[in-house]
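Re-run with default settings, no changes from the original entry. Doing this only to confirm the output is reproducible before filing.
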Amino acid sequence: MAATTKANSRKATVAGAIGNFIEWFDYSIYGFMAVTISTVFFPGDDPTAALLATFGVFALPVITRPLGGVVFARFGDRIGRKKTLALVLILMSASTGAIGLIPSYATIGVTAPILLILARIVQGFSAGGEYAGGAALIAESVPAKRRGLMVSLMPSSTGLGLLAGSLFSFVLAGALTADQLQSWGWRVGFLVAIPLGLVGLYIRLRLEETSAFQELAESDELASSPVKETLRTQLGNVGKVAGIALGQTVCYYVVLVYTPTFLRTELGYSPSDSLIATSLAIAVYVVTIPVAGHLSDRIGRKPLLFAGSVAMLVLIFPTFLIMEGASLPLIATLQVLAGGLALGCYTGPLVCTWVELFPTRVRYTGVSLGFNLSVIASVSSPFVLTWLISTTGSDLMPAWYVAIAVAISLLTLFVVPETAPAKGGHDHITPAADDEEATTPGRAGS
């Protein structure tokens, strides 16, 4: 029994993380290839206008992602985590692969950007159900004493997908000429989503449903209307999730997704140099997250959340002030400190805090609503910042944008309770059996 529990915990962690990896690999490809994509789908005499159009399409999840979050959250709390996450992955992989197959504007005219918009709508819609579902799946499948570490692998897989996209873009930029990159090279990253999605789907379909959800289903205690129940009984916790998520999501998009474009278009660095600096920061981010998640199992979630948010506030202005005219090693160091260490410290315990705030019957819905609210401000950040910089002429706009978001998260932390079981936090999640024990899962929170 213990071996089975341990094996299922590992499978659940991989199943939860793999979809997240695929999502962010493809999101990052779009972000890192934004300048190239702008010339393929939005040609014109004004490169800023083309880039704004590209980032405008990138920001479509502002509308579609929250909607997808509501739809899939209802499925996740009604029919189960496993089936919902399988459907999410099918839609995500298909829509992402479709982007790589769309002909250019030069080939089919205005139909090209229209098809790109449609693919991004479906992609954003499916992504709305991925993060909350994967986090709930892992949290309900692992031992309570290691939950911070194991759930932290969700955001770590986000960084890993971003790192893979960054390195992939770096290799393409170095191996191909500008003409090759524009004619076909940019498509490769999107087409890779199809085989990756098939692997992820196979893993998810072989997974068992979580015992917490199964017990609610067997006792006929599933929420009949998860969204209504969440808004009626958990609205405060939804707001807390949105508040503490805002700083993380905005800093993530600005420092780790948008900065390569900023370095290239505003400061004149080559595509390869800008991707090198960002890739180093992402690598540190990926490693820092599970370290912080593990520490949160011992000392609590909130100390690390406070430390990370304060560090982000302290570092963000020096990062963008010093970038202009700085050497590449110095730029990389600044990104590592702000986007790697500080953001990683904050992110490590963050997602586990979200899932521990909600009872099982509305966990998927509660996390999805709160997280996707924060995405509204973060996904649109490349578009907003490109417009703000072109309008104001100030290269400090990214720093101000991040600082305001992080300040909101820091203030929200004061009303968020400590959720770590080791520190006396109220545990809504049925603890899975410890590795060395063979126990029958207890009653799920309701």
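The radius of gyration is 21 Å. The longest helix spans residues 2-32.
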